[in-house]
Write a structure and sequence with these properties.
about 350 residues; 6-stranded parallel beta sheet; 13 helices; alpha/beta
Amino acid sequence: MSAKKTSLKDIAQRAGVSTALVSYVLNGKEKESRVGQEIAAKIKQIASELHYQPNHLAKSLRSGKTHTIGLIIADISNPFFANIARVVEDEAKKNGYTVIIGSSDENPDKSRDLLNVLINRQVDGFIIVSSEDSASQVQDLKDKNIPFVLLDRYFPDIQTDFVSTDHYKAAYDAGNHLVSNGYKRIGMVAYKSQLFHMHERIRGYQDALKDNKITFQKTWLKKVRFSAIESEVRGAIDELTAMKPPVDALIFATYGLAINGLKYFNELRLQVPDDLAIVSFGQAEVFDLYHCPITYLKQPIGLLGQTAVGLLVDKIKNHQKGPAQILMKAELIVRASSKTKIIG
């Protein structure tokens, strides 16, 4: 049999004050209610001694708010999204919110199910890393006037709040860096996707070549399916290295693509960067552990997560506020995998 839960009345009786006074103090309203510091401290001390736990359900019913945020990310196994989730959780806690996290695994059906479950749980708003074919879900949230912020991925045709990396500029910087270091036949492995951020990465890569007067070859760009990433990355690398002449550098459009590619390089005994220079999106410790440290595009994870939470909290408090659309710069971290090409 469980012990009786401590109530506000229990604390009031112990402190010799009214229940209303205890409520003011424990809800952080002692200053506006002009409660003396000494009595406020006494109430908090007694609440602590009695192990008082606030009744969040009752509070939610009174305020119409649950002080929870739904976070839907694309792939929890990807360190980028796992780190984003940690930042969002920490930042939300500072603002008095609890985060419920779900991973769509890049599947629109799973994303829709997660949204419905969390809406039924009456979360106050959402932070969403969109999956493929989920634009209609985003439009539905907008139509229902449910507060949300898109993170990392957004839909240019839907006017929404979003916080994202400037994917075009990041990919452009990667291509420009490789050309500056003497590479002329630069390939890219990307996802076969309709998502805007992937199109922007491809566009940035192509424009970097064009602006450096390198004629882009269609065979240099390989697109693979997320559902068949391992086999199709292998096939893409086989094709890129079998060309006459083969590509001399490669940009991986995501961390997952890079990891699969680097594993296959080891099997093929391809030497990075002597046989093939590498730049990848995403950051993870594994890039340091590879025999040749990998050049990568470091996205501002902390700032992305913090800004998304800040926007959502503002949106929850003021539904009428116009959409904020923020792009942030990725930093190119140059390592040995893309060092200046030695012409021999």
